[in-house]
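Lecture notes, unit on protein representations.

Consider one protein chain, 715 amino acids long.
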Amino acid sequence: MTSRSLLEGLNPEQLAAVTLPKQAALILAGAGSGKTRVLTTRIAWLLQTGQVSPQGILAVTFTNKAAKEMLTRISAMLPINTRGMWIGTFHGICNRMLRAHHREAGLPEAFQILDSQDQLSLIKRVLKALNIDDEKYPAKQLQHFINGNKDAGLRAVQVLAHDEFTRRLTELYAAYEQQCQREGAVDFAELLLRCFELLTRNAMLREHYRERFQHVLVDEFQDTNRLQYQWLQLLAGEQAAIFAVGDDDQSIYAFRGALVGNMFDFERDYHVKNVIKLEQNYRSYGNILDAANALIQHNGTRLGKNLWTSAGAGQPLKVYEGATDLDEAAFLVEEVRQLQREGTALQDMAILYRSNAQSRVIEHQLFSLGVPYRVYGGLRFFERQEIKHALAYLRLMANPDDDGALLRVINFPTRGIGARTIEGIQTNARLSGASLWQAACAGGGTGRSGAAVAQFVGLVEGMRSRSEGLTLPEQIELMLEQSGLQTFYQAEKDGEDRLDNLNELMNAAMNYLAEAEDRSLTGFLAHASLEAGDHQADAGADALQLMTVHAAKGLEFNAVFITGLEEGLFPHDNSVLDPTGLEEERRLMYVAITRARQKLYLTMSQSRMLHGQTRYNVTSRFLTEIPDKLLHWLNKPAAAPKLATLASRQSTRYATESVTGSSFRIGQSVLHTKFGVGVIIDYEGKGSDARVQVNFGGSHGVKWLMLEFAKLSPA
């Protein structure tokens, strides 16, 4: 493919981005604007024109799926071997760098990667070893504390403890770090922090990579956290050609540490001369994009862009309000069935919700009517019980000092090693400063339990010795036969699916060998841990997709239903008192809208059962922020006023009139000292007799309050 044909079909903005000279660049890529094409074509163009070799490019993504897609596209464009290229996730790139420089990083060559569950198990072991009250210091809270500080670039010794509770958490963080170092294990957050520290203190290594990577490309830049941005700065240097692609309007992961401000900082820090905006959308019809544009303009802090399409306006957005969440669910399912009858496949439709709790009534309705559905984001392959057991045996074969792996399978399948025996091994290991494996080898007790421990040690040693010289699939086959996993699941009543998964592990290994440079068992185990961090739907039969709006990021469907558009639910209660939180909720709604290609439905209910309580609702402010001309109401229930009605009241009777004698208005969010945050839905009276009707949702519901005594304040 020539460089000219490589650029054919690009719109002017895409062409400008792809052919930029070597410089720091910020590409503001709107939803459906072809950002992946721009990234991959940029790489192919740099290679085709001889500006850089494949070894001189570093491309960083957030998912393995995105990295594989980039490699596949580049291979289709150019006749080159992409296997050696540094294109991968932040964690994958850091893993690769730490493997190459494990001594300088202070890690064993066969260090193991802990996924979230493995990390939590290790934390629980640390708490138990130190006799810590897990009610006062819950393992999950400590996990969040550790990962949050690592994402901020802070070791335990660097954390400032302003109170006794934080001081104790910091001590437990330090104990966790020591245990990880003893076991030769790193968690996901550690991969990036350890790599950052390696580059910080090793100037020679830092300069080596700065000279090597002449072009650094970053996908989904709006999702980077502070440490990831600092790592990029350190790796690339001040004069680097960082090609940052992202969309500040789709930054929805603040709860994971993502900082939308990194885009503004990057523009300032690297003196970006020209922000290129990719605004032509190739996904959605015009009415959908106009709704998204109108909504997001209510956010004050944004770089600013306006999506457009040449595909035409399409249908208006359809709006439905049910009297209850059951009515809403019934409408959703009937509309899905109607669309299916008209020729839309179930897998091309998605029902989105803000909270997982919303799915119950929808799932019940789907089940009752026999509509196949899939809840996106269930257990992934590498997280299934039988696969975790198999990987634990493989981890012991690679590194017997892996305490977490040993504890998972020392008595699975059952071999007569009880909790008391395991506690004895843990005590001996702690007293001697050894790993559990070393303590087990030294003697796991007397009598039958001691013999069982010795048998387990012999099993692992036998698998380790017999695996030498075998290929990766042969090592896995050996493990499955010798460990007893196959025999165990064959004897289980419902073990057939688990056996299929164990057999699929062999296929995973074969696929890994076809794509990876590191063909070792250690490399495969790292791959498995990294894959477990991705959020990918299982392939399967045609089925309706159900998911949270967060899970929908990066996906698209012919028909999308955004449900639960009610104040306190979407936007969520937790956001209404925080301007930055409300802006993130609006970005989340923007993401939801832009998932739709052809048809978009907005639904809500006047009352909803959530967490065992009936809540009475006012329609989400987000609906009022979409122009009326883009909306087509499918029903007009009279049981309760809706915000659309209230909005029209404001535009007629209350066009210039607030709540008489006050600074309040209908539709405004207010704060009450006892009832919390609510929305004004009506008022009556004047002066000292003025009172307002406020919907507080939850257990408080709708209340009339005298303005003179209520002491309301704007929320």
